[in-house]
Amino acid sequence: MSLNQQLNDLHAERVRTWDPAVLKINIDQRQTLVETADPTAWVKAGDAVEPFVLKDVEGGDLTLESLTAKGPAVLIFFRFAGCPACNIALPYYEKALAPALRDVGATLVAVSPQVPERLVEIRQRHELSFKVASDIGNELGRRFGILYTADDVSQAAQRAKGGFIGDTTGTGTWELPQPAVVVIGHDRIVRFVDVSPDWLVRTEADPVIAAVRDITLVPAE
Q: Which pLDDT belongs to residue 216?
């Protein structure tokens, strides 16, 4: 099953089971993000990437230099460990994307602003073979232009339930990355970008695999 079919099924389950008022807040927020998205602000294919450091949830640093030392790096930006859609997307990438990338010498990393000690659980829960890393302070997400802040209605709804996403992530802010895939070549030039303002729409594996194969000149089977 495709990733987006699984996410459609998640939404359909919410339509069946959620309170209509709560569902409307979720739908309206995602629609607003789509309508107000500014693709001109996003990182683009052809952009040179300046050095960055991500924090591996298992300890240590993941630098641009280390990630691209042997081939392309594929960064999958996701929101946080408890995000239901992220818990569908990352296992999908484990099955549909990670093996193909290993075959061509590419490095796959899932990236979230959540602090490492809270983020490690999603890697353990799904026994992911690829790295999961924290983008401390949303530094790289901000540089790539993919951050968003929940609207006032969504914030109020979270507050009413005693929640605050900044407490969940450990960042202390409402900022989260829009789901995105960024492929960076060995030359540290961006070769592929796909950003999804609606977090229930995400990048399928096939276009990512095609982009990486194009870089590595490995023919499709």
A: 83
- Tokens representing 101 are 């990338």
State in Å, rounded, how far the first CA of the chain is from the last one: 21
| Encoded tokens for 107 | 């490095």
For the chain, how big is the Rg over CA atoms in Å? 17
Distance CA 184, CA 200 (A): 24
CA angle 148, 149, 154 (to 5 degrees): 130
Bridge partners of 56, per DSSP, are: 133
Tokens of 65: 């230099």
Structural domains for the chain: 3-216 (3.40.30.10)
Please work out, in degrees rounded to the nearest 5, the angle formed at the alpha carbon of residue 82 by the alpha carbons of 79 and 83: 50
Q: For the chain, which ranges sit under pLDDT 70?
A: 217-221
